[in-house]
Amino acid sequence: MKIYGLRSKIGLSATLLTTSVFTAGPLADAPAHAQQVQSPVISIFENVTLSPDFSPDPTTVRGISGGPLTASNIAGRAETATGPCAGFVDEQPDHTIQLTEFFSYLSIQVESPEDTTLVVRGPGGSWCNDDYQSNNPGIAGQWLSGSYQVWVGSYNRGSYHPYVIRITGNQ
Within a domain: residue 3? Predict the structure, then answer.
């Protein structure tokens, strides 16, 4: 796993650590009956390689939005055909998506509890989006084969928010 964008994300780890949760057994007040349950490790800032008819569909990746640079600086423009290049991102991409072939349809949508933005740079140029669905950005359509760098930004400078990107080939 490549660790991108962590330098400005206030010392966050590339992998969220396993946490311990204690659950009570039949005798809730008896510590001897308490057992430790490990929650799963959640990886963030992962990269993916996709071919048409990929599985699972949707594929998801996670991260933390935000950074010190303007999205327009990364995209090289203030607006694209898919939307404005708003918000603040890291210098390095949060994810790389490698498409092995042409996709007649592919959708990348960010889900976050806070307002986020999206910059995608790859074959044919740069694309941005701010509000695809409510405060969540996304880009959908035809995609050439090749390597795409993906940044998820925070609308406000100094804000960092967890997100999930859902990538689907289904319309």
Answer: no
Q: How far is CA 102 from CA 50, 94, 123, 143, in A?
A: 10, 23, 11, 6
- Establish if 9 belongs to a structural domain: no
Q: Are 55 and 106 in contact (CB under 8 A)?
A: no
Write out the two tokens for 30. 């008896």
Classify residue 76: in a domain, yes or no. Answer: yes
| Cα–Cα distance measured from residue 137 to residue 118, given in angstroms and rounded to the nearest whole number | 6
pTM for this entry: 0.79
What is the token pair recorded at 47? 């990269």
38 assigned to some structural domain? no
Containing structural domain, residue 142: 44-168
Comparing CA positions, the residue from 76, 72, 92 lying closest to residue 149 is: 92
d(CA 122, CA 143): 9
Q: How many structural domains does the chain have? A: 1
The CATH number of whichever domain residue 92 belongs to comes to: 2.60.120.380
CA distances to 20, 26, 34, 36 from 30, rounded to whole Å, are 18, 9, 7, 14
Please state, in angstroms and rounded to a whole number, the distance separating the CA atoms of residues 150 and 19: 29
Q: What is the tens place of the pLDDT at every residue in 107-162?
A: 999 999 999 999 999 998 999 999 887 779 999 999 999 999 999 999 999 999 99
Rg of the Cα atoms in the chain: 18
